Amino acid sequence: MALPLHRRLGLTDGELDAIRVRLGRDPNDLELAMFSVMWSEHCSYKSSKPLLRTLPTGGSGVVAGPGEAAGVVSIGDGLAVAFKLESHNHPSAVEPYQGAATGVGGILRDIFSMGARPIAVLDGLKFGDPEEARTRHLVRGVVGGVGGYGNCVGVPTIGGELVFHPSYAGNPLVNVMAVGLLEERHLTHATAPGPGNLAVLLGSATGRDGIGGASVLASATFGEDDPSKRPSVQVGDPFAEKLLIEASLELIERGLLEGLQDLGAAGITCAVSETADRAGTGIVVDLDAIPRRDAGMEPFEVMISESQERMLAIVRPERLAGVREVCERWGVPVAVIGRVTDDGLVTVVAGGLDEAGRPVPGATVLAAVPARSLASDAIVYQRASQPPAHRRQAPAPGAPESASDRLPIRGMDPGAVLRGLVGSPNLGSRAWVTTQYDATVGADTVEDGERAAGILRIRGTTKGLACATDAVAGVGWFDPYLGAALAVAECSRNVVATGARPLGVTNCLNFGDPEQPEAFWQLAEAVRGLADACRALGLPVTGGNVSLYNESPAGRIAPTTQVGVVGLLRDVTRRVPPQFRESGDLVLLLGEAVPGLAGSAYAGLAGSAVEERLPSLDLAREAALQDLVLAAADAGLLASAQDVSGGGLAVALAECAIWGDVGARLTLQVSAEPAVELFGESPSRMVVTVRPADLGPLERLAAARGVPVELLGSVGGDRLVIELVGGGAAGAAEERGASVADALDCSVASLRHAWEQALPRALGDDTFAPPPVGTVAPLDAGRIPGPVPARGAGPGSGTGRTPGTGPTPGPGGGER
After folding, report:
1. Which contiguous run of DSSP H or E holds residue 739?
2. Could you tell me where in the chain the CATH 3.90.650.10 domains are found?
3. Which residues face 564 on adjacent strands?
4. DSSP summary character for residue 649
5. What is the bridge-based pairing of β-strands 541-547 and 501-510?
6. Element housing 565 (H / E)
7. In the structure, what pLDDT confidence band is assigned to residue 770 with cuts at 50, 70 and 90?
8. 3-state SS of 258-298?
9. For a surface tag, which of 689, 692, 739, 774 has the fewest beta carbons within 10 Å of its beta carbon?
10. Residue 795 pLDDT more than 90?
11. Per residue in 285-300, pLDDT tens?
12. Buried b (16+ CB within 10 A) or exposed e, 212-225
């Protein structure tokens, strides 16, 4: 309390001076509070904005890009897909269930505010050591929050990733991606045009929960168990959100809105300032008209509260009655809280407004701030950047400090190493998580959960969407540029493996304190890697999020570039599955390994020499591989496809065998070390299976693109056997005087057991029973004939439905 108010609100002395310049005077206390949330890192992107301008954002199919609530890309036939990835890291560290739940709610509102019906959620979760009690508490709370909100709101959670790394011990990451479907003619923008139009608040009442929540928590580092941050975490109500989705979509489809924006970080202040700034208008807010759930709230509390399930709609006066009718039918509260003006100011009035939007006699103007000064003209920094003075190449924190005798090349059975890898927390089955999520609500999920990409069908068409999210933090720890580029390559490769053509990239940049030159250098390098990879693969960046100050007393997190990709399947019935399918199919490796074990799961298990390097990424080779797989899938040559990433080739083959419940007998040429060939995570590789008759056509397609193809063997039996041959095939058998190296030989049953028990064992849960391994829908599923039924007028008749999603019951209709 000894500090001046602006410092207590998180503003620096320099920022106070900048506010004075923009206002031409000293701000009052309410205005300071408004600036403090809008100029926070979370809302203003004040450290990252210059970097983000370097990303490639254009593309022939891009309908809406960065700066909108979500990116939107056309998929033909008048339809488009909206998608975005966002973080809720700091709130989830304080209160894991509500932090994660409201992260889901917030990203869903970004999607339907664009006019899109949310059809899927994916999550990217990062935690510390799973054997620690705090980590287990966080994992259970976060997974419960993601599932609890998504399950209740009726949007399937179809995929994601879960990673454990020591750097996340004090600062977990909770990144959530949402995908939506819309008709392009219903695309809606977050703007406030037309002076005289009404500013209408839809949804829940405003309370003290979430005061400065995301905007403050995401703009500061953590101390040890700081209880003062707990009141800042928002509280979600998924059932209120479900009603808000239906009401908002019906309002959009009936043409009743001029603009729509969700209320997330910075609450009403953010919504009115950003919508007005985009339109070049102003908004006058009647503070007394804002519904409140708590008595005695101060003006600043009302204006910056981050209470959930609220939307700001801009409505023409003559359409207000229609808006009220729709919202009342869906049980969504409506309040006119102000009017659009032509003065460019966000004006806050206590005491009421007349019908023209002017303060009534006796009313008091509490704040008057240019909208652009809060939004587009917020302060921007050119931060100092400095690479670390001593950049350690290996090992990662928590990994053995030097190579151990457990390396296969030093005498260990490679089969035991493979069982150790598939039985590790980072590579084992995610069923412990995915069984807590409703992946099939809506009945459009074709693949979910364990696979690299979730797949949804689009009703009334033959099309489908493949969705994935990935990060490569193990490499990012050593090289943030390479970690970001690898994340783009891996995520798009996972989508391509299904036969889907990637449409665009969304991202969430999770980094440390940008005021520290080394941390800002990590961020800048990651953005450079993201940009280079997207350009090389022809992918536009349609939007995303930046989460900074991810640090704790234990240190800074690993630089983490979380990437999301959505791809289009022209015919979902022809999608390519990842699992081995038929005995006698040929197993091929597309691409070739390059040296480098640093940052790999293998190095974390067995250790790596201090001079060990990272695997290199050739983006031209990556583009050629992805083009080959798409061409082969289009030609119907692929029986299955699985990318090679975490755990290397051996783990990719094990997953194919586990998912298909069938083994394979293979021969692998080893030119360097068995560990590199089997367990190295060099990119631009994929395991595919083909029928024998399709081998020649595939080889011709590969030769035309310069992609190496190695015939490994064939599918069959109940064991995964990999014979090692070639000049580099040294191993335990050779050390014992044998003339050949040891083969990797594991029963599929033993691999499945290790894989299924990995995560429950790591989290100390001995009661979990894994579900049967299998796909969500058979391969011939996906096409639902017939047009979308015509819209009705009342609850239960499909009101608020987006074409391609099927009928949606209204209140009491039974969908959860």
Report:
1. none
2. 188-362, 418-442+576-775
3. 469, 506
4. H
5. parallel
6. strand 560-569
7. confident
8. CEEEECCCCHHHHHHHHHHHHHCCEEEEEHHHCCECCCCCC
9. 739
10. no
11. 999 999 999 899 999 9
12. bbbbbbbbbbbeee
* Cβ(670)–Cβ(729) below 8 Å: yes
Catalytic (active site) residue 390: no
Find residue 456's DSSP bridge partners: 445, 465
Is 42 tagged catalytic?
yes
At 679, list the tokens: 């367990």
Tokens 């209320």 appear where? 263
pTM of the model: 0.90
Q: Would you say 628 and 701 are in contact if contact means Cβ atoms under 8 Å apart?
A: yes
- Given 88, 90, 165, 186, the catalytic residue: 88
pLDDT digits (tens, 9 = 90+) for 241-279: 999 999 999 999 999 999 999 998 899 999 999 999 999
Phi-psi region of 787 (alpha: psi -120 to 50; beta: other; left: phi over 0): beta
pLDDT number for residue 209 = 77
Which residues are CB-contacts of 123 (< 8 A; sequence separation ≥ 6)? 146, 157, 160, 161, 174, 175, 176, 177, 469
Distance in angstroms (rounded) separating the CA atoms of residues 400 and 503 = 40
For the chain, give the number of residues: 816
The CATH number, out of the four listed (3.30.70.120, 3.90.650.10, 3.50.50.60, 3.30.70.890), of the domain defined by the range 188-362: 3.90.650.10
Closest by CA to 126, choosing from 173, 175, 176, is 173
Are 262 and 104 a contacting pair, CB within 8 Å?
A: no
> Is 51 in a helix, a strand, or coil?
helix
Spell out a b/e string for 515-529, using b for 16 or more CB atoms within 10 Å of the CB, else e.
eeebbbbbbbbbbbb
Catalytic member of 6, 42, 90, 189: 42
* pLDDT of res. 236: 86
Inform me whether the pLDDT recorded for 776 exceeds 60: no
Q: Which amino acid is at 205?
A: A
Separation of alpha carbons 340 and 112, rounded Å: 23
Whole-number average pLDDT of the chain: 88
Distance CA 492, CA 561 (A): 14
CATH code for the domain defined by 418-442+576-775: 3.90.650.10
Q: Tell me: the pLDDT tens digits for 129-147? A: 999 999 999 999 999 999 9
Closest CA to 140 of 755, 763, 757: 763
CA gap 727, 249 in Å, rounded: 63
Q: pLDDT tens digits, residue range 97-106?
A: 999 999 999 9
What are the tokens at 550?
Answer: 């991810």
Q: Are residues 192 and 120 in contact, defined by beta-carbon separation less than 8 angstroms?
A: no
Instruction: Identify the three-state secondary structure at position 127.
Output: strand
DSSP-assigned letters across all residues of 627-669? HHHHHHHHTT--SEEEE--TTHHHHHHHHHHHHHT--EEEEEE
Q: For residues 653 and 510, what is the distance between their CA atoms, to the nearest angstrom? A: 31
- Cα–Cα distance measured from residue 31 to residue 94, given in angstroms and rounded to the nearest whole number: 28
Which residue reads 């897909």 in tokens? Answer: 81
Q: What is the SS3 string spanning 477-506?
A: CCCHHHHHHHHHHHHHHHHHCCCCEEEEEE
- Residue 813 makes CB contacts below 8 A (sequence gap 6+) with 795, 796
C-alpha–C-alpha distance, residues 229 and 73, integer Å: 38
Tens-digit pLDDT profile for residues 552-589? 998 999 999 999 999 999 999 999 999 999 999 999 99
How far from 199 is each of 116, 188, 341, 342, CA to CA, in Å?
A: 21, 16, 10, 14
What digits encode the pLDDT tens for the residues 653-698? 999 999 999 999 999 998 878 888 999 999 999 999 999 999 999 9
